[in-house]
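Quick illustration, no need to memorize.
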Amino acid sequence: MEKEIKTGKKTMGIAISIACFALVLVMSMQFKIVNQTNITEIENMREAELRTELANWKAKYEEVEKKYDETVLKIEEYKETKQSNEETKKLVDTEVQQVNMTLGKTDVEGEGIEIIIRETKQDEISEIKADNLLVIVNALKQAGAEAISINEERIINMSDIVTIGESTPFIKVNGQRILAPYVIKAIGNQTYLESALLGNGGHVDELKKLGHNIVINKINKIKIIKYRDEIKTKYMQ
C-alpha cells in the first residue's frame, strides 16, 4: 500500500513536471509570438513612415523642380523680351531720327552745294526779294535736295519766306530778318542741284543777268543746322 502511494506521488510529480514544462513552453512560445508581432508592426510602421517621408520629399522635389523650370522659362522670356525691346527701341530710335531729319529738327551733314548771292542794287526792280529766294528753294527741292537753309535758317514745309515793308523792304525767313549776302545751302546730288539753277530757265542765270553776283560752290561735306523753333500745328490733331 505504501509502495503504491509512493508510486502515485512519483507519477503525480512527473505529471506536474510535464505540466510545468508544457506551461513554460507555451508561455515561451507566446512571448516569442508577441515579440515577433511587435517587431513586425514596428518594421511595418517604420516602412510606412519612410514611404510617407519619401513621398513628401518627392513631392517637395517635384515642386522645387517645377518652380525651377518656371524660373528658367521666365528668365528666357525676359531675355527674349529684353532683346526684342532693345531691337524695337533701336528701330524706333532710327525711325525717330529719320523723322526728325525729315522735319528739320536735327543738324545734318552731307554733300551738296552752297549758293552765295551778293546783291547789287541798281533799282527796286532788280533787288533781291523773297520771291527770288523762294524760286531757288523750290528748284532745289525739285532737284532732290534733302535739306535746305537760307542764312542758317532751316527750310521746312512750314517755313515762310516773305518780303516785309515797301519803302525799305527786307526779307524774313521763319520769322527772322535776314540780310545780304544770302547764303543758301542744300544737301543732295551736286550735279542735279547745280543743273536746276543754271542753264536754260535757271533762276540763277536770270539773277546774274540782272547784275547780281552769284557764286555756286560744290561742297563734299556741308552742314545744315536744325530748325530752331517749335513746330506748331493749329488744325491738325
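The mean pLDDT is 76.
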